[in-house]
């Protein structure tokens, strides 16, 4: 398991687990989904969590204050992957959706984009020949070029032109560009809001959108010296060093995340 210390935040895994055990009931664990709990697959609809992950998350939820998945996927997709989990909270579409008492609750400002996004997805299907994969997510459209990286510029240009014309926002990811509603919402905002009463929090991420969540931990530490935040990157060679260099530790893969949590649970 590769672990790279972040020089500006000299926290080791041992230190972080000790803090967590000491403040267990006021600790939250946040996880991104793709690339963190689930290995990257060519077909986004085929993604599944690492086999050990659901049970490990449930065990963790029994030990700490809160466990949550904060993903760019819709909540319904996450529910399909974690059907048996009862104690893990789900935030979808960067926090535009949250699962609350069994219902998907959507930020009201995003609702007006449901129909335009359906139209946009149909337009993208017509405009971008396969193997570009158009992923329609109800309130956003992701254009994947993993199967044809040589067409990245074409896909990016189409997305940017379309976003400008329709007044939409753009989010880049791993071999993907996504068109989103121009609603002020990101993973960092989810974390900031969810941390109100927390004394300790961990965030596990692998992509550019996760850096905002790391930043939210740092921002909380800056105003609350009693708060301890631990940012964990899951390594990949697609986002380069940017995510790892913003984190306290880097783990090698989603399987390494499961192993890291399994070991951590022995400390309680
Ligand atoms: O916030 P996340 O849960 O990490 O979601 C980020 C994006 O994940 C998915 O795309 C990525 O994973 C796919 C499956 O491994 C892979 O094929 C693709 O290249 C990756 O970009 C998802 O399909 C996107 O909608 C999410 O934005």
Can you offer a commentary on this structure?
This protein has 268 residues and is of the alpha/beta class. It folds into 2 domains: 23-107 and 186-265, HAD superfamily/HAD-like (Rossmann fold), CATH 3.40.50; 110-180, Trehalose-6-phosphate phosphatase related protein, domain 2 (Alpha-Beta Plaits), CATH 3.30.70. It is built from 10 helices and 12 strands. It has helices spanning 13-22, 53-63, 75-81, 108-111, 114-127, 152-166, 187-194, 208-223, 242-245, 254-265; strands at residues 27-31, 66-70, 89-92, 97-100, 103-106, 133-136, 141-144, 169-173, 176-180, 200-205, 228-234, 249-251. The strands form 2 sheets. The chain has an 8-stranded mixed β-sheet, with helices on both faces. A 4-stranded antiparallel β-sheet has the order 6-7-9-8, covered by helices on one side. Helix 2 (53-63) runs parallel beside helix 10 (254-265) and helix 7 packs parallel to helix 8. The longest helix has 16 residues, at 208-223. The two termini are 21 Å apart. The site of the ligand O=P(O)(O)OC[C@H]1O[C@H](O[C@H]2O[C@H](CO)[C@@H](O)[C@H](O)[C@H]2O)[C@H](O)[C@@H](O)[C@@H]1O has 22 residues, from strand 7 and strand 9. Ligand L263DTV3 is lined by residues 32-35, 40-42, 44, 47, 71-73, 135, 142, 144, 146, 173-176, 178, 207.
Uncertain stretches of 5 or more adjacent residues: 1-8
Provide the spatial order of strands within the biggest beta sheet: 5-4-3-2-1-10-11-12
Q: Report the β-strand fraction as a percent range.
A: 15-25%
Q: In the CATH hierarchy, what is the architecture of the largest domain at level 2?
A: 3-Layer(aba) Sandwich
Total domain count = 2
The helix-and-strand class reads alpha/beta
First-last Cα distance: 21 Å
What would the average pLDDT be, to the nearest integer? 94
């Amino acid at each position: 398991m590769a672990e790279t210390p972040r020089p500006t935040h000299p926290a080791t895994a041992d230190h972080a687990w000790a803090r967590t055990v000491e403040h267990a009931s006021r600790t939250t664990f946040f996880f991104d989904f793709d690339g963190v709990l689930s290995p990257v697959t060519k077909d986004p609809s085929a993604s599944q969590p690492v086999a050990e992950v659901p049970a490990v998350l449930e065990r963790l939820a029994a030990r700490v204050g809160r466990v949550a998945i904060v993903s760019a996927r819709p909540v319904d997709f996450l529910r399909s992957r974690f059907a048996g989990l009862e104690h893990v909270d789900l935030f979808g579409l960067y926090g535009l959706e949250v699962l609350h008492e069994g219902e998907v609750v959507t930020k009201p400002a995003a609702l007006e984009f449901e129909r335009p996004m359906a139209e946009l997805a149909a337009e993208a299907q017509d405009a971008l020949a396969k193997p570009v994969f158009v992923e329609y997510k109800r309130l956003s459209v992701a254009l994947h070029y993993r199967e044809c990286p040589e067409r990245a510029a074409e896909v990016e240009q189409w997305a940017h032109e379309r976003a400008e014309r329709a007044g939409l926002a753009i989010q880049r990811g791993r071999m993907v560009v996504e068109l989103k509603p121009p609603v002020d919402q990101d993973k960092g905002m989810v974390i900031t809001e969810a941390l109100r009463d927390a004394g300790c929090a961990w965030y596990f991420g692998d992509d550019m959108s996760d850096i905002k969540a790391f930043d939210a931990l740092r921002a909380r530490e800056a105003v609350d010296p009693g708060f301890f935040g631990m940012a964990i990157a899951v390594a990949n060679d697609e986002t380069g060093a940017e995510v790892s260099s913003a984190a306290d530790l880097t783990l090698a893969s989603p399987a390494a995340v499961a192993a890291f949590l399994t070991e951590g649970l022995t400390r309680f």
